[in-house]
């Protein structure tokens, strides 16, 4: 597909879909259409129609991600969903929340805050790159005090797909609650949340599903639903239904949620059929960009660069070449994270490879990372 359906600036080489996504024009038009409809009769829309409209969104989203709609609540983003989980669980002094050193920084802050308030301990288990036996590396951090296992489905800094199915299975057997941050999964992966095995799963619709910003979700297994307190306490609080307790956030613009079905339809028709091509294009250029940190990846991957100031590399790629891409330091190692969506071309990746060589002052080819 050409770049045309997307609203991206033609003057930018956009290789950072993973950060905030990009909304195609037909989906954005649906979003604005709902906003206009709301403003024509706000009382009728918000007070009489909205609950039914959101029920339909949950039904369609549930079918898309393989989740019972009665366990699915709409939230602005995956961050809000992780906050619901972390702030609802009654951690005790001495409890441990086990995670990895690949997690998104904001989520680390969420769990550290929860642990500090309960005098519990946040444990970051190292997982080496290139990724090896992730299951055993993570599980070696389990102790008799482990109460929660928190993992990314696809990690943000390193773009590694973690084997969450096996880790959630082990957690269930050990009586450990599993919470999965699926911010990057919807749209990149075919999801079946009921089969995946997590106790709580959060996701974004605005990234790889290409819905408008402000559309995400939380799903919980039936036995966990009564434990989770709403993101905002409002009119749904007295309800016995999980979805109703979490549905009301006061007066907000619900248009991003209501446009999710349009995003699902657009993704099915235009983006899902191109995922393999996007993956192949990324795989073709990864050896030219640096040393891959994982053998398995989807449409987003990270490579290790030679010793450099990663932040300066990112600045130069943007200021001198108008390339939007992530270069950052992870555990003291400079990484470049590249996202490929249907609008990207071979020329985009070639431009990045050439600009990267200039920014580094050397070719990134042939670098071999160490553990």
Question: What is the secondary structure topology, with strand pairs?
Answer:
Blueprint: E1 13-14, H1 17-20, H2 25-40, H3 42-65, E2 72-75, H4 78-88, E3 96-100, H5 105-118, E4 121-125, H6 134-139, E5 146-152, H7 164-174, E6 177-182, H8 193-196, E7 200-204, E8 216-220, H9 242-247, H10 255-258, H11 260-271, H12 275-289, E9 291-292, E10 300-304, H13 310-321, E11 323-324, E12 326-330, E13 333-339, H14 346-360
Parallel strand pairs: 1-11, 3-4, 3-5, 5-6, 6-7
Antiparallel strand pairs: 2-8, 7-8, 9-10, 10-13, 12-13
Helix pairs in contact: 2-3, 4-5, 12-14, 13-14
Molecular structure report:
With 371 residues, this protein is of the alpha/beta class. It is built from 14 helices and 13 strands. It has helices spanning 17-20, 25-40, 42-65, 78-88, 105-118, 134-139, 164-174, 193-196, 242-247, 255-258, 260-271, 275-289, 310-321, 346-360, and strands spanning 13-14, 72-75, 96-100, 121-125, 146-152, 177-182, 200-204, 216-220, 291-292, 300-304, 323-324, 326-330, 333-339. Strands 2-8-7-6-5-3-4 form a seven-stranded mixed sheet, sandwiched between helices. A four-stranded antiparallel sheet has the order 9-10-13-12. The two termini are 39 Å apart. Residues 366-371 have low confidence and may be disordered.
């Amino acid at each position: 597909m050409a770049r045309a359906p997307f609203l991206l600036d033609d003057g930018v080489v956009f290789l950072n879909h993973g950060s905030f996504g990009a909304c195609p024009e037909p989906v954005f038009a649906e979003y604005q259409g709902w906003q206009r409809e709301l403003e024509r009769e706000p009382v009728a829309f918000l007070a009489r129609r909205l609950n039914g409209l959101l029920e339909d969104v949950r039904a369609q989203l549930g079918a898309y991600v393989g989740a019972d709609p009665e366990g699915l609540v709409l939230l602005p983003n995956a961050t809000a969903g992780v906050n619901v989980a972390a702030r609802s669980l009654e951690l005790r002094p001495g409890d441990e929340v086990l995670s990895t050193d690949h997690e998104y920084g904001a989520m680390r802050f969420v769990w550290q805050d929860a642990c500090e308030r309960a005098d519990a301990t946040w444990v970051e288990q190292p997982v080496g790159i290139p990724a090896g036996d992730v299951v055993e590396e993570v599980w070696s951090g389990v102790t008799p005090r482990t109460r929660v296992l928190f993992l990314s489905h696809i990690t943000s800094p390193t773009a590694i797909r973690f084997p969450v199915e096996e880790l959630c299975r082990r957690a269930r057997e050990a009586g450990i609650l599993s919470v999965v941050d699926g911010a990057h999964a919807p749209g990149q992966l075919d999801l079946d949340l009921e089969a995946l095995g997590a106790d709580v799963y959060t996701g974004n619709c605005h990234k790889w599903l290409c819905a408008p910003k402000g559309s995400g979700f939380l799903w919980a297994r039936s036995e966990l639903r009564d434990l989770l307190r709403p993101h905002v306490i409002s009119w749904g609080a007295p309800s016995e239904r999980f979805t109703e307790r979490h549905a009301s956030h006061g007066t907000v613009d619900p248009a991003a949620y209501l446009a999710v079905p349009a995003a699902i339809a657009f993704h099915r028709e235009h983006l899902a059929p191109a995922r393999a091509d996007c993956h192949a294009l990324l795989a073709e250029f990864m050896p030219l960009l640096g040393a891959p940190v994982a053998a398995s990846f989807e449409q987003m991957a990270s490579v290790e660069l030679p010793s450099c100031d990663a932040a300066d590399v990112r600045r130069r790629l943007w200021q001198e070449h108008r390339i939007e891409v992530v270069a950052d330091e992870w555990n003291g190692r400079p990484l470049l994270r590249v996202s490929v969506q249907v609008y990207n071309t071979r020329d985009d990746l070639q431009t990045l490879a050439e600009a990267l060589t200039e920014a580094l002052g050397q070719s990134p080819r042939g670098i071999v990372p160490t553990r």
